[in-house]
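User: My instructor asked us to take a sequence, write out its structure as tokens, and then describe one feature of it. I'm not sure where to start. Here is the sequence I was given:
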Amino acid sequence: MAIDLSRFIATFFDEAHEHLESIEEHAMALGSGRGDAETLNAIFRAAHSIKGGSGTFGFTQLSEVTHEMETLFDGLRKGVGRADESTVRLLLDACDVFKAHLARLKAGDRGEDPAMRELGNRLVGSRPDSGTGDAGVAAAPSAAAAAPTEEAFFTDGPAPPAREPQAAKPAAASWGLFSEDAAPKRAETEKYGLFEPAPAEQNRRKGDQSSIRVSVEKIDRIVNLVGELVIAQAMMQQAVTSHGVREDEYLGHTLATLDRNTRDLQQTVMSIRMMPMEFVFSRFPRLVYDVSSRLGKNVDLQTQGHDTELDKELIELLIDPLTHVVRNAIDHGIETPTERRRAGKPDAGTVSMRATHRGGSVIIEVSDDGRGLDRERIVAKARELGMPVDDAMTDEQVWGLIFEAGFSTAKEVTSVSGRGVGMDVVRRNITALGGSVYVSSARGEGTTITIQLPLTLAVLEGMIVAVGDEQYIVPLEFVAEAFKPGADDIQTIVGKASLVAVRGENLPIVRLEDVVELPAGEAARPEPLCLVVEVDNRRAALLVDSLIGQQQLVVKSLEANLHSVPGVTGATILGDGRVALILDVSTITRTTNLRAQARRRA
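Assistant: Let's start with the prediction itself. The structure tokens for your sequence are:
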């Protein structure tokens, strides 16, 4: 009885993309001269796996072209020819074509793909027997036998006999238009080895026998349900406290057990969504290779903190901002080899990416050893664009100008940069994720972009503060300290921003009642409380009426049901059932900083 393969096709697409990422990663090793036998074997195995799966599902063109890639690297790993820069370029181009072809297949398009036909010709042309291959890039001739049919693997009867071996067509043949008999054939020894992984792959899979693939939608559903359970548990605690039955020892023990188990369940479920930063870093060797080659620069990429974990949703949303940062580092930061030699630096520049945990946040640093930021040039460009600047601005404030929309110091527009988009997108996207970004730079030594993100978008540790009768949430990761200022600590100057003295430093005061535009009430207000918040290297004193407490909270998106609210990143449900808004501290402090600058110039 034949097996319905449609159930497995989604898994095939996922695994095919994983294999392509593996090919790209090992291609970078070839390009850096680390192309040992295991690297060639890994590329061969990845191509072999894609070929096997595509043949099973009847994706003939994909199967044929990956067969030619497999043949090429089978020769290289047997010592016929050598891999060079042209091999790397061929591999990377092939991965791009394969990804586009997989997208067509996933959309249901089974028609002839001209790009795949052209790629097939390039792969065949790289073989020594074609007479047109690149010098030093060769593959050993392979035996040609008919590929097994789907029925050979998924029927109860015996497998049909293999056809007699036939010679493959010469390289000049048009790919994708071969007749069945003239198509490149697999060796008879591959017939039942189609699904057999290499020994190293077998060992890896043995260690993964206890893991299963689960759709993201199912995980998100569980996360949402656990979030609702946490809210219900908090409401139960609030109800017990308000009704004065907390003295019941048995009830107190039961509630404590429920609270502990609920928190453990929440942490366990959230850990399912966590992924290592390796999934982010693995995308950048290819980007660095392509951009540096296009700009004629030599750039080495170094990464640290591969095991640092971050929420899967954040991982996916982090790719674009980091891409902008790395491209800018190569384009604007790293000098050409000639400029670097003149400055006494090695020809090859370095871009470093590092991820670490700090409290409840993940810190990602992207550094380069290039020319650094030019303060005078940035200030001059800002004035040209009509931005509010003055010579008294600190370096941190000047560096912050590069995040303004439309800002670019590039002398000409290129395919890499110069249109004034990129860094403003970085700040907007990072802020939308509840994070912050700031810059440090030294002239002639390099620049570091530091991104701070919460571990997850679903849960946060927050300070519950009150203004009047309303309660708001300040993410704990931005809170440095809390204190009650004395009467002499606050300085109010007519027409200027109010300041509060904190250990010899005067911080601008942000009155939360002004931020949320709370109407003035007649009731007496308590003595104010200051929360010192720090974000993007900016510090401010958030003035509130009172501090309710610290609590782990379930984040609810406003945009999903309402619309984006300036100064607010989301909402949560408190234990008493009330809805509290989560404040966007980054936007609030940045707005306050700009107002202070405007008042100072006035």
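For the description part of your assignment, you could build on this observation: The chain has a mean pLDDT of 77. Try explaining in your own words what that tells you about the chain.
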